[in-house]
Amino acid sequence: MRTPDYPSRDSDDWAKVDSYFTDLLAPADSALEASLEANANGGLPAYDVSPMQGKMLALFVTMTGAKRVLEIGTLGGYSTIWMARALPEGGSITTIESVAHHAEVARKNIANAGVTERVDLRVGAALDVLPELTGPFDLVFIDADKPNNPSYLEWSMKLARPGTVIIGDNVVRGGAVTDSDSRDPNVRGVRTFLEMISEDPRLEATAIQTVGEKGWDGFVMAVVKAR
Ligand code: DHB
Ligand code: MG
């Protein structure tokens, strides 16, 4: 069982339910399991989405009919593989990773999952890579260094179109998000990000708290409104 990022008294129960759901709805998958193992062996932080969250991202790709996906923060490519698999024929996911070693592990995981052809993995700081990209993207998943979330939102908007879905991971952080005095740069980044979303008349959004094998966290989801 993984160590939750934000544990609580009930962490074991949440993880047990996650495991029950995963066995039912996304059973053993050798490429995905191998990627988590490679990430652990490579010393990558265990910040991957959970299997049920990966499946949720895949379903979002399917439900939106997204053909072009942008992921900010590849890590070892676990969520990348989930979303890449859900793409239609001719679809692609551009994913950005700033740590060369993480990108190297991700490249192998992506190849092992047989989705290399659909994945455009860019190595570099997202704020350097984003200006090189051409939109529009249909779906954006922001899951990198949280202090830069406000800038990632600005770039996502530049690379979006009306109807683009923007998802941001880790906006609850064990409840720390409500602490307006927090000195934690991750919390501050997430709070500014959420405030920007709330104040942007072009966006309609919700935020959902989650419990499971990662503990207590959640994601924000926004859609760019039609003009
Ligand atoms: C952290 C980052 C993540 O993307 C995640 O899913 C969990 C935790 C972190 O930086 O603490
Ligand atoms: Mg995350």
UniProtKB/TrEMBL annotation:
GO molecular function, one term: S-adenosylmethionine-dependent methyltransferase activity
Keywords assigned by UniProt, alphabetized: Methyltransferase, S-adenosyl-L-methionine, Transferase
CDD domains with a match to the protein in the record: AdoMet_MTases (cd02440)
Sequence intervals crossing the membrane: none
Pfam families per UniProt: Methyltransf_3
GO biological process: methylation
InterPro entries reported for this sequence: Cation-dep_OMT, SAM-dependent_MTases_sf, SAM_O-MeTrfase
Family of the protein in this entry: Belongs to the class I-like SAM-binding methyltransferase superfamily. Cation-dependent O-methyltransferase family.
PANTHER family with a match to the protein in the record: CAFFEOYL-COA O-METHYLTRANSFERASE 3-RELATED, O-METHYLTRANSFERASE-RELATED
Protein name (record): Related to caffeoyl-coa o-methyltransferase
Organism: Cephalotrichum gorgonifer
Lineage: Eukaryota, Fungi, Dikarya, Ascomycota, Pezizomycotina
